[in-house]
Write a structure and sequence with these properties.
The chain is an alpha/beta fold and about 120 residues long. The protein has one domain (about 5-55, about 70-120): Roll (2,3-Dihydroxybiphenyl 1,2-Dioxygenase, domain 1), CATH 3.10.180. Helix content is about 20%, strand content about 40%. The chain contains two helices and eight strands, in the order βαββββαβββ. It has helices spanning about 10-25, 75-85; strands spanning about 5-10, 30-35, 35-40, 50, 70, 90-100, 105-110, 115-120. The strands form two sheets. A four-stranded mixed β-sheet has the order 1-4-3-2, covered by helices on one side. A four-stranded mixed β-sheet has the order 5-8-7-6, covered by helices on one side. Helix 1 runs antiparallel to helix 2 (about 75-85). The radius of gyration is 14 Å and the shape is globular. The protein starts with a strand and ends with a strand. About 30% of the residues are buried.
C-alpha cells in the first residue's frame, strides 16, 4: 500500500552517506536523485525511501510519533542493519531484540533525528 517514504534532512551529503550504507546492506541502491533529493529502492519493487531538503526552504524537523520500518530477511540482517546504523552515527532508540513473539526489531535515529527500525516478522 505504501509507495515510498520521504524524510527531511538539513545536510543531504551527510544523510546520503548514511543511507547509501543502510540501503546497500538491504540490497538496494539509489534510483533517482537531484541537487536536493535522493531516493533509494528498486523500480517496480517494494516501498523505497527518499531524503529531501524541505521544498519550502525551512529547516527540516523530525515528526514526533513518525517512524520508518525497514523490512529485513531475518534476525541476522536486523542485527546487521541496527549495528551498521549505530556505527554510522545513529542513536539507539531500543536495541535489536524480540519485542513480542514473532516480531524482532532494533530502533535507531538517523543523523537528522528521524526514527527508523529494522525488523522481521516470523
Amino acid at each position: 500500500m505504501i509507495g515510498y517514504v520521504t524524510l527531511g534532512t538539513n545536510d543531504l551529503p551527510r544523510a546520503a552517506a548514511f543511507y547509501d550504507k543502510i540501503a546497500g546492506a538491504l540490497g538496494v541502491s539509489r534510483m533517482m536523485e537531484n541537487d536536493s533529493f535522493i531516493a533509494w529502492g528498486t523500480p517496480g519493487g517494494g516501498a523505497g525511501i527518499g531524503l529531501t531538503k524541505p521544498f519550502d526552504g525551512n529547516t527540516a524537523t523530525i515528526g514526533n510519533g513518525v517512524m520508518v520500518a525497514l523490512e529485513c530477511k531475518d534476525r541476522a540482517q536486523v542485527d546487521e542493519i541496527y549495528n551498521l546504523a549505530l556505527s554510522l552515527g545513529a542513536k539507539c532508540e531500543g536495541p535489536a531484540g524480540e519485542r513480542w513473539p514473532g516480531f524482532y526489531a532494533g530502533y535507531f535515529r538517523d543523523p537528522d533525528g528521524n526514527k527508523l527500525n529494522a525488523f522481521v516478522m516470523s
